[in-house]
Amino acid sequence: MKKHVLSLTLAFMLLPLAACSGLGKQANLGQEFSLAIGQSVTIPSEKMTIEFIAVTADSRCPSGAQCIWAGEAECTINISLNKNEQTVTLIQPGGGSSVSTKIEGYSLSFILNPYPQLGQQIENRDYRLVLTINKS
């Protein structure tokens, strides 16, 4: 009997964690959200899902360095809209300001964080893609 009570207690304690990780994030149009590599967000009103796949390049000039070129960062995302999927490469120039692009009648504003610092390497697990999506 004690084993069953302990098992049920543990199951109820872990249930919220499983629910959060299994359902993914949700957002609304115009709402800023942040994704780590491998995470996705759904915008239910638009039947849209966006997954942050990878940072494929990051040559942005680090803060504290003097560079001839500001560099750029490239991110790959998957967009599923009305059951149609496409892979998109987002390019952010160095300098740390957000960028906008238009895709399928939507405007995506994005910025890749963190911005590189002189002498510090960014691990894949530390990248966050901050997005805001609006109808254009």
Tell me the number of structural domains. 1
Would you state the CATH class?
Mainly Beta
Low-pLDDT parts are 2-22
Outline type: elongated
The largest pleated sheet is described as:
5 strands, mixed
Strands, total number: 9
Instruction: Could you tell me the CATH topology label.
Output: Tick-borne Encephalitis virus Glycoprotein, domain 1
What integer value in Å does the Rg equal?
19 Å
Helix content: 10-25%
CATH architecture: Sandwich
Order of strands, main sheet, comes to 1-3-4-5-6
**Mean of residue pLDDT?**
84
**SSE order, as H and E?**
HEEEEEEEEE
Structural category: alpha+beta
Task: Classify the beta-strand content into a percent band.
Answer: over 45%
Helix count from the secondary structure assignment: 1
Distance between the termini: 60 Å
Index terms:
alpha+beta; 16% helix; four-stranded antiparallel β-sheet; disordered N terminus; five-stranded mixed β-sheet; 136 residues; 9 strands; Tick-borne Encephalitis virus Glycoprotein, domain 1; 46% strand
